[in-house]
Design a protein that fits this description.
The chain contains five helices and six strands, in the order αβαβαβββαβα. By secondary structure, the chain is an alpha/beta fold. The chain has a domain of 72 residues: Ribosomal Protein L15, Chain: K, domain 2. The longest helix has 18 residues.
C-alpha cells in the first residue's frame, strides 16, 4: 500500500546535474558546451547580446490572419423569408425588408437568394437576385425587379459644365 512514508520518485524521473567546466572527462568537452569563440562563448555573452535577428523580432509580433475585403457586402434575404413575412400580391422593397427585420442595413444594397420555397405573388425590388431566386419568384407568379442604387457621383453637377463654357467663350472672343 502507498503511504506518505514510502513515497519515492521513479528512477527515470531523476536527472543528474550538468557539471560544466570540469574537463574533458565530464562529457561536456573542451569548450564546456559553449562552442568556439564568439560573444556567446565568453562569460556574460548570452545576456549581453545586443542585436537580435529580425526573424526573432517578427515571430514575437502578433499577426492578424486572413483577408478582409474592402468591398462592402450586400445584405442577404432568402426567398423563404419573404414568403413568411409578406402577404400575397404585396410589393416588397429594401425598406420593407428592413422594417420586417430581415436585414440589418440597406446601405450596401440587398440581394435575394433562393433558399426556401415561395408560393405567394410578390413583386420584389432588390439590388441583386440569384438566378434560382428570380426563377422561383417568377414561377410563383410574382416579379423580380432589379433596382440600381442612385449614386450622387454619377449625376452631372453644374460645376462640371462651367469650365467648358469658359473655354468656348475664349475661342469666340479670339476670332472676333
Amino acid at each position: 500500500m502507498l503511504t506518505l512514508h514510502n513515497l519515492e520518485n521513479k528512477k527515470s524521473a531523476k536527472h543528474r546535474k550538468k557539471r560544466v567546466g570540469r574537463g574533458d572527462a565530464s562529457g561536456m568537452g573542451t569548450y564546456s558546451t559553449r562552442g568556439l569563440k564568439g560573444q556567446r562563448s565568453r562569460s556574460g555573452g548570452k545576456s549581453g547580446l545586443a542585436i537580435r535577428s529580425i526573424k526573432s523580432y517578427l515571430l514575437r509580433i502578433p499577426k492578424v490572419r486572413g483577408f478582409k475585403s474592402l468591398q462592402n457586402k450586400m445584405a442577404v434575404v432568402n426567398v423563404g423569408d419573404l414568403e413568411k413575412n409578406f402577404q400575397n400580391g404585396q410589393t416588397v422593397n429594401a425598406r420593407d425588408m428592413l422594417k420586417a427585420e430581415l436585414v440589418a442595413t440597406i446601405a450596401n444594397g440587398v440581394k435575394v437568394l433562393s433558399q426556401g420555397k415561395i408560393s405567394k405573388k410578390l413583386t420584389v425590388e432588390a439590388n441583386a437576385f440569384s438566378k434560382d431566386a428570380m426563377e422561383k419568384i417568377n414561377k410563383a407568379g410574382g416579379k423580380a425587379v432589379v433596382v440600381t442604387p442612385s449614386k450622387k457621383e454619377d449625376a452631372p453637377s453644374g460645376d462640371a459644365e462651367k469650365p467648358k463654357a469658359k473655354a468656348e467663350e475664349t475661342k469666340e472672343t479670339k476670332k472676333d
